[in-house]
Write a structure and sequence with these properties.
This protein has helices at 15-24, 57-67, 81-86, 88-108, 142-161, 192-201, 228-245, 261-272, 296-302, 311-326; strands spanning 5-10, 29-35, 48-51, 71-74, 113-119, 164-170, 172-174, 207-210, 222-223, 225-227, 249-253, 259-260, 278-281, 290-291. The chain has 342 residues and is α/β, with parallel strands linked by helices. The protein has 2 domains: 5-173 and 226-253, NAD(P)-binding Rossmann-like Domain (Rossmann fold, 3-Layer(aba) Sandwich); 175-224 and 256-329, UDP-galactose 4-epimerase, domain 1 (Alpha-Beta Complex). Helix 5 (142-161) links the parallel strand 5 and strand 6. Helix 4 runs parallel beside helix 5 (142-161) and helix 6 (192-201) packs across helix 10. The longest helix is centred in the N-terminal third of the chain and has 21 residues, at 88-108. The chain binds nicotinamide-adenine-dinucleotide. Nicotinamide-adenine-dinucleotide is lined by residues 10-11, 13-17, 35-40, 53-55, 75-77, 79, 98, 117, 119, 170, 172-173, 186, 341-342.
C-alpha cells in the first residue's frame, strides 16, 4: 500500500489552502486541515479537520501529537493589504505571534519542514519587472512587512534549529478547481476577478478601474494571475525538493505574463457573454503599475509548469464556480473594496 506522509495545512478551509488540500494526494501527501474558520468555509474542508486557532498552543500540540505531520504548510493569516495599513497591530500581532507559536510546536515535535505562503508584496514597489527572487525586499504595507519578517525569522530558525522552510511568493492567485467544488469566496472580497464576475452576474452595479494613466499600454495596472490549482501543486513540489535536498529556498509563483485590468475585463466579457459596466476612478496609493513574476527559478528547480493558468481558463473556472456558488445569492451583494491582490 502507498505510504502517504501527513502534511498539516493551516488555513486549509480558505481559498488557496483548500485547493492545496485537494491536490495533496496527487503528490503523495495526506492533508490535515487546521483552521479556526474565521474566514474559511466548512464546505471547503476535505479529509481530516481540526477546528482550532493558531494562538491555541495546547490544541495545536494535540493536533501534532495525533497526526504526526512530516511537514507544515502555513496558509492561515490575515490577508487584507488595506486593513493592514489601518490596523497594523492586527497584522503584526496575529501574523507573527501565531506563526511563532506554530514554529515552537514544530520544534517541540521535531517537525522540520515548513512552507510559507509569502507574497509579491514583500518586494514593494518594484525597481525591476519581471521581478526576480533576488529583487530587494522593501514592503510598503504591514501585510507585506509581516510576511517579510516571517521570512527573516525563518532564515534564523534554519541556522539555529535546522527548521527548513520554503517561501513561496505568490503573485495573484485566481481561478477555481476544475471540479467546481472549490473556489474563491472572501468576505469582504478585494480581488479583481471575483469582483468583475460579481458585476457580470449583476451582484455589483459596476467595476471601478482605479487609474487609467499608468505607464502601461492601456493605462491600467498590470498583474500576473496564477491559477490556484497550479499554485497548490507548486507547494508539494517545493516540499518534495526540500525533503530531498534538506535545504531552505524561496520561489516566485507567477506565470511571468501580466494582464491589465482592462484586458481582464474584456476577457471576462468574452467568457461570461455579459457586458461588464465599468466606472473610472482615481489611482490608489500604493498600487504599482506592474507586478509580474520572473518565474524561471520555480520552473527549473521544481519542474513546475503552470498548466491551468491561461487567463481564459482562470476566468472560465472562476465563472463556473462563481455562478454556481453565488447563483442562489444573486441579490445579496457582499462587502467589497476593490484592491489589487498581492
Ligand atoms: N489570495 C492571494 O492572491 C494571495 C496572494 C499572496 C499571498 N497570499 C497568502 O496566501 C495565504 C492564503 O490566502 P487565501 O486567499 O487562501 O486566504 P483565506 O482568507 O481564504 O484563507 C485563510 C484561512 O486561514 C484561516 N485562519 C486565519 N487565521 C487563523 C488562525 N489564527 N488560526 C487558524 N486558522 C486561521 C481562515 O479561517 C481561512 O480559512 C495567506 O497567507 C495569504 O497571505 C494570498
Amino acid at each position: 500500500m502507498k505510504e502517504f506522509q501527513v502534511v498539516l495545512i493551516t488555513g486549509g478551509a480558505g481559498y488557496i489552502g483548500s485547493h492545496a488540500v485537494q491536490e495533496a494526494r496527487n503528490y503523495g501527501f495526506e492533508p490535515v486541515t487546521y483552521d479556526n474558520l474565521s474566514m474559511g468555509h466548512r464546505w471547503a474542508i476535505q479529509g481530516e479537520f481540526v477546528k482550532g486557532d493558531l494562538g491555541d498552543r495546547p490544541k495545536l500540540l494535540k493536533a501534532f501529537r495525533k497526526y504526526q505531520p512530516a511537514a507544515v504548510m502555513h496558509f492561515a493569516s490575515h490577508t487584507y493589504v488595506g486593513e493592514s495599513v489601518t490596523h497594523p497591530q492586527k497584522y503584526y500581532r496575529d501574523n507573527l505571534t501565531n506563526a511563532l507559536n506554530l514554529f515552537s510546536v514544530m520544534l517541540e515535535r521535531k517537525v522540520s519542514h515548513f512552507i510559507l505562503s509569502s507574497t509579491c508584496a514583500v518586494y514593494g514597489d518594484p525597481v525591476q519587472v519581471p521581478i526576480p527572487e533576488d529583487h530587494p525586499r522593501n514592503p510598503v504595507n504591514p501585510y507585506g512587512d509581516s510576511k517579510m519578517m516571517l521570512e527573516k525569522i525563518l532564515a534564523w530558525y534554519d541556522r539555529a534549529y535546522g527548521l527548513r522552510s520554503t517561501f513561496l511568493r505568490y503573485f495573484n492567485a485566481a481561478g477555481a478547481d476544475a471540479s467546481g467544488r472549490l473556489g474563491e469566496a472572501h468576505d469582504p472580497e478585494t480581488h479583481l476577478i471575483p469582483l468583475v464576475l460579481d458585476s457580470a452576474m449583476g451582484r455589483r452595479k459596476e467595476i471601478t478601474i482605479f487609474g487609467q494613466d499608468y505607464p502601461t499600454p492601456d493605462g491600467t495596472c498590470i498583474r500576473d494571475y496564477i491559477h490556484v490549482t497550479d499554485l497548490a501543486g507548486a507547494h508539494f513540489l517545493a516540499l518534495k525538493l526540500m525533503m530531498e535536498t534538506g535545504q531552505s529556498d524561496f520561489f516566485n509563483l507567477g506565470t511571468g505574463k501580466g494582464f491589465s485590468v482592462r484586458e481582464v475585463i474584456t476577457k471576462a466579457e468574452e467568457v461570461t457573454g455579459k457586458r461588464i459596466p465599468v466606472r473610472m476612478g482615481p489611482r490608489r496609493a500604493g498600487d504599482p503599475p506592474e507586478l509580474v513574476a520572473q518565474s524561471d527559478k520555480a520552473r527549473a528547480a521544481l519542474g513546475w509548469q503552470p498548466r491551468h493558468s491561461s487567463l481564459e481558463n482562470i476566468l472560465k473556472t472562476a465563472w463556473a464556480w462563481h455562478r454556481n456558488y453565488f447563483g442562489g445569492k444573486a441579490k445579496t451583494s457582499r462587502r467589497s473594496t476593490v484592491r489589487s491582490r498581492q
